[in-house]
Amino acid sequence: MTAGMIARTLEELQVYQKARVASREISAILARPSFRGDQRLRTQLGSASERVPSAIAEGYEQSTDRHFAQYCFRAKGSCREIRTQLSVARDRRYITEEERQRLDPLFEEIAKMLSGLIRHLKKEDRKDRGPGRWE
User: Fold this and answer.
1) Second CATH level (architecture) for the domain 10-124
2) What are the extents of the domains in the chain?
3) DSSP, residue by residue, 25-79
4) Averaged over 9-26, what is the pLDDT?
5) pTM for the full model?
6) Span 33-67, pLDDT tens digits
7) Exposed (0-12), middle (13-18) or buried (19+): which is 19, by Cβ within 10 Å?
């Protein structure tokens, strides 16, 4: 793990911080009147954006690195789902192309950060990592 990725608590984990910011960004666009008529997409997009930081948090508490990595894979999958749903929202004209182009890279970056974390976790493969054991 690179020095920028070392964290002693969940809240210090950069990918978790970024996922929370991204989730707030999605919440802001879902509050718009344009989404009110499409409850299904609104629910799907909102749920997926909540799953990203939630999966990271749940994985962080797992006892092994491999288990944590599984939760990171789930979060990464949710990032891809969100990127697809943003394209659907653009196609339905709920957001502009500029908004999609601003939000899509945010979730792409989170997915890349998760890939790096997954590689680290698989390499370390600690069997009893315990919360906060990042040294």
Assistant:
1) Up-down Bundle (1.20)
2) 10-124
3) HHHHHHTSHHHHT-HHHHHHHHHHHHHHHHHHHHHHTSSSHHHHHHHHHHHHHHH
4) 96
5) 0.88
6) 989 889 999 999 999 999 999 999 999 999 899 99
7) buried
